[in-house]
Design goal:
This protein is an alpha/beta fold and 718 residues long. It is built from 17 helices and 36 strands.
Length: 718
C-alpha cells in the first residue's frame, strides 16, 4: 500500500485513534475542524498539519470592540400592499434577529431605498421615516393597492457557517462568532497584525487552511433559524458604505441598493447579470485578491503553505476569476458532491495542488446509531471517480469529527480502499492529459468565471428545477471530451474559437444559462448562426436561445429545426410529428429515456428536422442540418449512464464526426474508457456496483472484450 495524498480530521483527546487511522488510510495530513483546536502534541504526528484560520471571524473581542466594522448585507422586506395613504412595514419580519440587525450607524436615507414595486418608482426620502425601536418604516402618501418594499443595510452579527455548525452540533452556549469587514479601515489594518500573531501562537501547523477570507456567500436565515435565502455565488453580503463609495470612485458611477437587491433575487447566478453587477463582482474580486495576497505573503514569509477552502467566505476569490492566480495560493480544497464539483476544484489554474473533501462529513446528522454512512460514501466516490479519471485532484480528505467515524468499522474499512484506489489512479495517470475526442464549449452568461459551476444553487445540493441541466455538467465531468466554458461577451469580443467542435447551450428561458435577452444582440445571434452554418455543431437543451422576438421563441429556431409554442401561433398548423425508427444518437438506449423536468410544446418547424424522440404528443429530441453544420435539440438531460451516452453521441453527431466516436470507447454505457497516450496506459472503468461486460475499442477502433468486477478499474498498457 502506498501512502500520502490523504487528509483526515482529528478530535479532542483522540490522538491514539487518530494515529491508527493515519496508518490504516495512509494519511499524511491531519486537520482540525470548526469548533475544535488542534492540540500542540499533534506536531510531528503527520507530514502535514492543517490548522483552520478564519480571517474575518473567530475573534469576538475585536468584533465586540468595533461593532461599526462588522460585515454588512443588503436585505429586502416582504412585499406589502398599501390599503391607504399610510403604510407601516416591519423590516425584520421574516429575518433571524440573532443573525442580522438593521444598520442605523450609517445614514439610512443615503443607503436605504423604499420602492413602489407596482410602478418601480423610488419613494422620496422625505416620504418615509424609520422607528428604530419598533424596527418599522412608515410611508406617508402611499398609493392605495400599490406594493412596497424596503431595501435596507443590515449588520451581520452571526457568521452563517458557524451558525449552521452551532445548530447542527448543538453547541449550546458557545459564543456566536461575529464577522468583521476587511474593507473597514481599522479592521483592514488589524487582520494583518492578527495573522502574524496567530502564526506565532500556532507553531504546530505547517499549512494554514484559510476558511476562507473576507465575505461569506449569501446565506440568510429566517425567524425560525432556517435557511431563507442561499446563493453559493452571492455577493450581497460583501457590501458596505465604504465598498459602495470606493466602487463609485473606481468605476465612475454610483450603485443603487437595487443593483444588489435585484427585486429580491439578490443577483442569483440564474439571473442574467447586469453590467452594474458584473462591475461590482470585478471590483470586489480585485480588492479581495490584493488583500488576500498580503496574507498569503505573510504565511510564506513564515515558511508555511497557504491553502484556501472553496466555500464559506470565498466571495471575491473565485478561482476562475482574472485576479485569482496573482494571489499565489499554494492549494485549494473544496467539498466534493460529485463529478461536477470535483472538476470545479481539480481544474483550478495557478495553484500547486488541489484537494477534495469527500462526503459524508463526520457530523452527527449522518454518523448516528442505526445509519450506514458507507452508502453515501460509495455513491459519492463512484460518482466523483469518473471526473478523477479525467482530471485528478492532487489530494483527497474528509472533514468533521474523527471520533464519530471511528465508531463505524465498516465505514473505516471502506475509506481505506478509497484512499488506496485514489493513489493508484493518481500514480497511473502521472500528470498526463487524457485522450479527448472532441472539444466542446458550454455557452452561458458567466463563461469561464463559473467553470463547472453552472446551475448550482447551494453547491451540490439537489433542486427540482436544476437536476435536468446540472446533469449535463455531471456527464461532461467524466466524458472523453475537452470542456471549455465561454460567455456571450467572449463571443462578442473574440468570436468562437476555431478549435471548438460543439457548443452547448442549456437552461430555462430567461436564465443566465440559456442567455435571456443576450440572444437579442445582433452580434451574438449572427455569430452563432454563421458558425453553425459553416460547419459547427450545436446542442441545445431545455430552452436554448429562448427569448420571444421576431416570430420565434428560440432565436436559433432555423438552425435547431424546432421552436416552442407559447400559444401565439396556435393558428399555424404543425405537420411534422413522425419520429424516425432509429437514429445514431439513440443506438445505445436500453430503457426509457429520462428527460427530467423536460419541456412541453416543442415542435418541428420543417420537414427536414429529424425527430428522434416523440412521445405523448411531445417532441423531446431532434436534429437538424443547417448549412454544413448540425444542431441537436434535447428536452432535458439529468445525469445517468444512459443520458451520458446520449449526450456524447449527440456531440459526435452534431460535429459530423460519428466515425471517430469509437476510439478509446466502451460499448457498455455503464463503462467508460480513459486513455493516457503520454504514459501509454488506458483504464476501463465500471461505474456501477455490479459486474459488467463490455467491448473496448482502442485508438484505432479495434475491439476486445473485457469483464469487470463491481466498481472495478482495469488498467491496460497501450
Amino acid at each position: 500500500m502506498s501512502k500520502g495524498r490523504v487528509t483526515i480530521p482529528t478530535d479532542d483527546n483522540f490522538i491514539k485513534e487518530t494515529l491508527e487511522i493515519v496508518e490504516k488510510w495512509g494519511a499524511d495530513a491531519i486537520r482540525d475542524c470548526d469548533g475544535f483546536k488542534l492540540p500542540r502534541e499533534i506536531k510531528g504526528l503527520a507530514e502535514r498539519i492543517y490548522s483552520t484560520y478564519f480571517v474575518a471571524r473567530g475573534d469576538n473581542a475585536w468584533a465586540e470592540a468595533n461593532k461599526e466594522e462588522l460585515q454588512q448585507t443588503y436585505l429586502m422586506t416582504k412585499h406589502h400592499v398599501a390599503a391607504g395613504e399610510t403604510l407601516t412595514i416591519n423590516i425584520m419580519d421574516g429575518y433571524f434577529a440573532e443573525q442580522v440587525q438593521p444598520d442605523t450607524y450609517h445614514d439610512i436615507k443615503t443607503w436605504w431605498e423604499v420602492i413602489d414595486r407596482t410602478t418601480d418608482e423610488v419613494v422620496g426620502v422625505d416620504s418615509w421615516s424609520y422607528d428604530e425601536e419598533a424596527q418599522t418604516v412608515t410611508i406617508e402618501g402611499a398609493k392605495s393597492w400599490h406594493e412596497y418594499t424596503v431595501s435596507f443595510l443590515a449588520y451581520c452579527i452571526w457568521d452563517p457557517t458557524q451558525m449552521y455548525n452551532h445548530i447542527t452540533n448543538n453547541w449550546g452556549d458557545k459564543p456566536h462568532e461575529m464577522p468583521f469587514d476587511a474593507r473597514k479601515p481599522k479592521t483592514n489594518e488589524y487582520i494583518f497584525k492578527a495573522m502574524y500573531k496567530w502564526l506565532d501562537e500556532n507553531p504546530e501547523s505547517n499549512v494554514v487552511r484559510f476558511t476562507t477570507f473576507f465575505y461569506h456567500f449569501t446565506l440568510v436565515f429566517n425567524d425560525l433559524a432556517k435557511e431563507k435565502f442561499v446563493d453559493w455565488f452571492g455577493y450581497s453580503s460583501s457590501v458596505s458604505p465604504e465598498a459602495l463609495e470606493a466602487f463609485e470612485k473606481a468605476k465612475g458611477y454610483r450603485l443603487r441598493p437595487e443593483d444588489i437587491i435585484d427585486e429580491g433575487y439578490y443577483n442569483s447566478s440564474f439571473r442574467v447579470p447586469s453590467k452594474q453587477y458584473m462591475d461590482y463582482i470585478d471590483f470586489q474580486q480585485q480588492f479581495v485578491s490584493e488583500n488576500v495576497k498580503k496574507l498569503v505573503d505573510i504565511v510564506h514569509e513564515d515558511g508555511r503553505e497557504a491553502m484556501m477552502f472553496l466555500g464559506d467566505n470565498w466571495i471575491g476569490t473565485e478561482p476562475y476569476g482574472k485576479y485569482f492566480e496573482s494571489i499565489g495560493m499554494d492549494g485549494v480544497v473544496g467539498s466534493v458532491g460529485g463529478g461536477a464539483t470535483l472538476r470545479m476544484i481539480a481544474d483550478i489554474p495557478g495553484v500547486k495542488y488541489t484537494e477534495g473533501r469527500f462526503l459524508p462529513y463526520f457530523f452527527p446528522d449522518t454518523f448516528y446509531e442505526g445509519n450506514d454512512p458507507t452508502i453515501e460514501a460509495k455513491e459519492n466516490w463512484i460518482t466523483a471517480r469518473r471526473a478523477i479519471m479525467r482530471k485528478p485532484l492532487d489530494r483527497i480528505g474528509y472533514g468533521g469529527y474523527l471520533s464519530l467515524a471511528y465508531k463505524f468499522p465498516k465505514f473505516v474499512e471502506y475509506i481505506e480502499g478509497v484512499c488506496n484506489e485514489f493513489r493508484d489512479i493518481y500514480d497511473n495517470i502521472a500528470g498526463s492529459k487524457p485522450y479527448c475526442g472532441l472539444k466542446v464549449a458550454v455557452l452561458n452568461c458567466w463563461g469561464k468565471l463559473r467553470s463547472w459551476q453552472t446551475h448550482m444553487v447551494a453547491h451540490a445540493l439537489w433542486y427540482k428545477q436544476i437536476y435536468t441541466y446540472l446533469g449535463v455538467i455531471e456527464s461532461l465531468s467524466g466524458m472523453s471530451v475537452d470542456v471549455n466554458f465561454i460567455s456571450f461577451e467572449d463571443i462578442k469580443e473574440t468570436g468562437i474559437p476555431s478549435d471548438i467542435d460543439v457548443i452547448i447551450n442549456a437552461g430555462d428561458a430567461g436564465t443566465a444559462f440559456s442567455g435571456g435577452d443576450t440572444w437579442l444582440d445582433p452580434q451574438v445571434i449572427t455569430t452563432v448562426r454563421q458558425w453553425i452554418y459553416n460547419g459547427g455543431g450545436f446542442v441545445g437543451i431545455g430552452e436554448p436561445s429562448a427569448v420571444l422576438k421576431g416570430g420565434h421563441f428560440f432565436q436559433l429556431a432555423e438552425a435547431l429545426g424546432v421552436d416552442k409554442e407559447l400559444g401565439f401561433s396556435l393558428s399555424t398548423d404543425k405537420y411534422f410529428k413522425t419520429a424516425l425508427d432509429k437514429h445514431f444518437i439513440t443506438e445505445d438506449v436500453i430503457e426509457a429515456i429520462d428527460f427530467g423536468e423536460s419541456q412541453k410544446n416543442i415542435y418541428a418547424t420543417k420537414a427536414s428536422t429529424e425527430i428522434i424522440t416523440y412521445e405523448n404528443g411531445e417532441l423531446l429530441m431532434s436534429s437538424n442540418d443547417y448549412g454544413k453544420g448540425r444542431a441537436v435539440y434535447i428536452a432535458g438531460c439529468p445525469y445517468s449512464p444512459q443520458n451520458t451516452r446520449i449526450l456524447m453521441r449527440s456531440f459526435y453527431y452534431a460535429a459530423h464526426k460519428e466515425s471517430e466516436m469509437k476510439k478509446w470507447y466502451a460499448d457498455n454505457l455503464n463503462c467508460e474508457v480513459s486513455a493516457y497516450l503520454d504514459t501509454k496506459k488506458y483504464a476501463v472503468i465500471n461505474n456501477t456496483m455490479e459486474s459488467q461486460s463490455t467491448m473496448v475499442y482502442d485508438g484505432q477502433g479495434k475491439a476486445i472484450s473485457i469483464d469487470l468486477k463491481p466498481c472495478e478499474i482495469r488498467w491496460m498498457n497501450i
